[in-house]
Write a structure and sequence with these properties.
Number of domains: 2
Shape: globular
Number of helices: 8
Structural class: alpha/beta
Oligomer: single chain
Helix content: 25-40%
CATH class of the largest domain: Alpha Beta
């Protein structure tokens, strides 16, 4: 469903974050991308969504090429609104002085699904302004808004980073309830989260992609030396 082939990216003339990266996510699956801070995880999400331009490579969503760059030529570069990708950033990306309902309707086609509203437990929040919500409530609203847009691909970029421990696990419960109908790229540095939410796991580091592997601690430990260190404490 998501296909990335030979993708390379750097900021200006800086050292490449990654070169010749290839990745595939089948429809209806969750792939978690692990990596240290600065490894290029969020940059990859921005490339997929159309907020950045690669040095070269091809990105396809639902068998449609949305981005194709050769080293000296732009062949295809669809704008973000034409890619059917929804991104939930770690800072939520909500409009603080609009209500929850207004934020969701900005992205939805018609009225948002009552089942979605119930599953994410935001029925009682719809008329509240976003700037009055807790971090956990904002995260659920951000996810509701993204899903209401009915994207072909959902990207969650460090979605738990601003939540306390209880809110994190509540969010995971919500996500498990709705994830069967989603194709999702989940970005995190936390291997425990990756083991809990994924169909497949990859690791981005040293300018290359490792994996994919099954969400098993033995495979995770063997994937990269950094993960071998981290998994000792899981």
């Amino acid at each position: 469903m998501l296909e990335i082939k030979d993708l390379s990216f750097s900021y200006g003339g800086a050292k490449p974050l990654f070169t010749d990266l290839s990745l595939s996510i089948p429809k209806g699956e969750v792939l978690t991308l692990l990596g240290a801070s600065g490894s290029g995880k969020s940059s990859l999400s921005r490339l997929i969504a159309g907020f950045e331009k690669p040095n070269k490579g091809v990105i396809s969503i639902d068998s449609k090429i949305v981005s194709k760059f050769l080293r000296k030529e732009t062949v295809v570069d669809l704008p973000p609104k034409e890619r059917s990708v929804a991104v939930v950033f770690q800072d939520f990306g909500l409009f603080p002085f609009l209500s929850v309902e207004e934020n969701i309707k900005l992205w939805s086609e018609g009225e948002p699904s009552s089942d979605l509203i119930k599953s994410l437990d935001i029925e009682g929040l719809l008329l509240r302004k976003v700037n009055t919500l807790s971090g956990g409530q904002k995260q659920r609203v951000g996810l509701s808004r993204a899903i209401a847009a009915k994207p072909k691909l959902l990207i969650l970029d460090e979605p738990l980073s601003q939540l306390d421990e209880l809110a994190k696990y509540k969010f995971l419960d919500y996500f498990k309830e709705i994830s069967a109908s989603l194709t999702c790229l989940w970005i995190t540095h936390n291997p425990l989260i990756a083991l809990k939410v994924s169909h497949k796991i990859c690791y981005l580091g040293s300018q290359k992609l490792y994996g994919p592997i099954e969400p098993k601690i033995e495979e995770l430990s063997a994937l990269h030396p950094d993960l071998a260190t981290l998994t000792k404490y899981l």
